[in-house]
Amino acid sequence: MPLRSLAWRLALWVLAGATLVFLASGYLLFRMVGHPLLEQAQREAGALASQGSSLVQERLDDITNTSRVLASVIGPRPLDTAPLIHDALAGNADIASLAAAFVPASAAAHEAGQSPFVSRQSDGTLARRDLFKDPQPYWNAAWFQQGLACEQGCWHAVFWSQSRHRLLVSYSAPMLVDGKAIGVINADITLDWLQGVLSSMHLPAGTRAFVIDQAGTYLANDAVDEVGRKADAALLDQLKTPANPHQLTLHGEPAWIYDQPIHGTQWKLILVVPEALIYAQVRHAFMSVLVLGALTLLLLGLIVMVTIRRTLTPLGVLAERAEQVARGALDFVLPPVRRHDEIGRLTHAFDRMRLELATHLQELTRVAQEQARLASELDIAQQIQTALLPGPHYLDARCHNFELFAVLKPARTVGGDLYSYFMLPNQRFCFMVGDVADKGIPAALFMARTITLAKAMASRAQSPQQLLQLINEELCRHNDSCMFVTLLCGFLDVATGQLTLASAGHDPPALWGNHAPRWLPVVSGPALGLDEDASFPAMRMRLKPGDTLLAYTDGVTEAANKAMEQYGGDRLLATLGQFHDAGDESAHRDPAKFLVEDVEAFSTGHGQSDDIALIALRWNHAGLDKGTPMLDLVFPASLEKVFETLDLCEETLREAGLRHDVRADVRLVLEELMVNMVHHGSPSAGESIIGLRMTVVKEAVLVELNHDGAPFDPLQFGSPTLTGDLADRDDDGGLGIHLVRAMSSELNYTHDEDGNHLQLRFAHPTEHGHGT
Amino acid sequence: MALNLRIDPLGPERSTLYLEGRLDAMSFGEFDKEADKVLEQMANGSTLVLDLSALDYISSAGLRSIAKARKTMRARDGHTLLVNPQMQVRKVFDIVKAVPVKEIFENVRELDDYLDRIQRKVLDGGDEVE
After folding, report:
1. Domain for residue B130, yes or no?
2. Scanning every residue of chain B, which has its alpha carbon at the shortest distance from the alpha carbon of A642?
3. Is B129 a member of any domain?
4. Closest residue in chain B to residue A720, using alpha carbons only
5. Which domain holds residue B60?
6. Which of A137, A404, A599, A633 is the most exposed place for a label (fewest CB within 10 A)?
7. A725 and B70 in contact by Cβ < 8 A?
């Protein structure tokens, strides 16, 4: 885990680099210093060897000198030989024994009378004997012959003294008289003594020294056991080579061997230094450098660690704070800024960032709350909008004459498309489909306004075109945003199937029944909300049983699929054609749902881009009993025609089984009204036309009278003055209207551009009793 | 079924006009013509009786014709009396308060009694009973 810390990694890298540099420089240093050190060690060893050789030589020189002096002194005066030798031995403790051996039968031998031999006993006393008396004649011995031969004196080989039980080595110097050897002075030294000389060298520990003679025999050795033995052959071979020092592995240990000849002899002093000892200094130096380097590195590491950690601590805190920020906590303390370096700037920037972030978060939270509130308001708005709409299915409960299906699918939560329907007085059913320009909330509000206005105005309007006009006037008021709505409005006479349609810029509806679906050519006025003086033409038609009228908004035809093709009017007609061709099965199905499902399937993958509203009105004409008399007549306004019509009405009502008095009431009212129409006909010359439609429904006779004459409202007149005797009256006007009002159960008058429209209702109780 | 008219008797003091069928905007002309013929020969203070037993129907046009006849008779100090109007006619009369109730009689006998009483009053004191 600590290795993940930047400080640790940085420190490690610095240390690694430092170590590398240290190793490289250490190696170079070692190379530079190591060699001289080695040479020095070798020089020292060599010096030690020559020092040892000098020491031995010095002591030997004493002996040889003593011997030579004796030889030179005794030669001319052999008489004093014995005391001289005795004194010399006493005076020189180094010598084990001294002998003066004369050539037998020589003058000197005669003069001396003896060949004295003085030796030092083990208790330190001196013993003397005459060599002439020895059983073995000395003059045949090797040492005597050789001693005579070598003028300068020479050392002999090691020998074992039987008498003294020691290894000895002897030196012989000839006594010369007139250039002729008369005898030999022989001095013996014990190898023990030589050993003692060697020991006085005080060699460094581990170093060994020994002396070998020309035959390779150890004369002295640190290992006392070896004295007198032949040296190792390998060693001797090595010593013959000119190299000095020699390198050899002795007793399994590599060693440097220094040989130094001892002058005056043929001996050599050999110094054996183990290689380890030679290299010890170098190794020591190496170790020192190593330890020093390690210590330096350790110290450097510590300093680097402390410095980096100290420098980077704020960074660690910042990193931790950044993690807190990531978790959403913004309230914390930042490390104090010591310097305005990168970390200081980072800390400042971090602090600013935190503040900005907090502000931003606050803003975000506020926006999110705002959005949640808007969303909930939109939901409520949708509920309200939905509540404005009547249900998606309406079946005329009284007589099942017609059935209505509706669908509304806003593209967003709320939309601007609308449909509505409701019953109006006098058996009229009003329905509409509309589309507000634009989408979303403004459109929804405008839609709500339109639908509410329509409902409020409908009772005042006698026709869809008039309703459109009324809504238009209201919508035009203060419509600064120039919103507008297209609306298709229809009034259906639920008793007869008479349909009046008026369109305000809306797409024409489709109609099918006995024929395949086709467009209904409704001439359209302008959209509502733009021109307050607009007027709207009406289209009248009679629905036949089985007819279905479908009104829709452009969300249907403009629905697009993935290839951006529009659904289109042709496809709409084709789909309705399929529905129509399904025959009787389709009679009870919902054409609106069928169409919407087809549109949805078409636009799968592209999504709904516009609101969709649909209304399908199916005219069943099922509610009228078979044989119920019904009249629908249009005729010129003349008395003859009026009375023909009255007779026809009377006959029809009689056949319908109406009571005589009701029939008479109907006749009276119709006569009064129609005669009035004949008399107050069209102001223009042409003959006016009367339309009469009479329906018998349960307990009532419904009559609609239309006349394209001058406006005449029978309801505007007050009751006439009735004195009780008609003969009192000067004018006879108003009686007919009075009768009309008295006789009819209900009377409605409207006037539009088509003229006067009167709706009448006569109650006819089926039970036996008097109606009015 | 139009209007049928019959005059019996026709006399300057008292004439009776029988109406049968409908008196409406179509037939009131016939009635007016017949009524004029009767009214022409009526003397002052005479009585015109309209027998409505067979009149099925009357409309405002018919009412106007009857009112006209009554006006003419009133101008001659005469009376116009109505006998036995049928249900529809009576209803119309009621609605427009066409004629004083005392001038409508259930049948001819009632009418004759009424006329006899008047006759006697005229002979006795010349007072007219309202």
Report:
1. no
2. B26
3. no
4. B96
5. 3-124
6. A137
7. yes
Chain A contact present for B23, CB below 8 A: no
Q: Taking CB atoms and an 8 Å cutoff, what residues of chain B touch A738?
A: 95-96
Provide the H-helix boundaries in A434-517: 440-458, 464-476
pLDDT level of residue B130 (50, 70, 90 thresholds)? very low
Query: Is A742 close to B56, i.e. CB distance below 8 A?
Result: no
Interface of B with A in 34-93 (CB under 8 A): 56-57, 59-61, 63-64, 66-67, 70-71, 74, 80, 87-88, 91-92
> What integer pLDDT is reported at residue A218 of this predicted model?
86
CATH 3.40.50.2000 is held by the domain A630-763: no
Average pLDDT for A29-38: 82
Distance of CA A64 to the CA centre of its chain: 101
What is the Cα–Cα distance from A478 to B115, expressed in whole angstroms?
Answer: 77
- For the four alpha carbons of A388, A393, A395 and A401, in that order, the dihedral sign comes to positive
Q: What mean pLDDT value characterizes chain A?
A: 84
- Which CATH architecture does the domain made up of A32-292 adopt? 2-Layer Sandwich (3.30)
pLDDT digits (tens, 9 = 90+) for A170-191: 899 898 888 888 888 999 998 8
DSSP code of residue B1: -
CATH number of residue B84's parent domain: 3.30.750.24
Look at phi and psi of residue B53 and say left if phi exceeds 0, alpha if psi is from -120 to 50, else beta: alpha
| Structure confidence by residue, pLDDT tens digits, A189-224 | 988 888 888 888 888 888 888 888 888 888 888 777
What does the pLDDT read at residue A210? 87
pLDDT band at A550 (very low <50, low <70, confident <90, very high): very high
CATH superfamily to which A389-619 belongs = PPM-type phosphatase domain (3.60.40.10)
B44: left (phi over 0), alpha (psi -120 to 50) or beta: beta
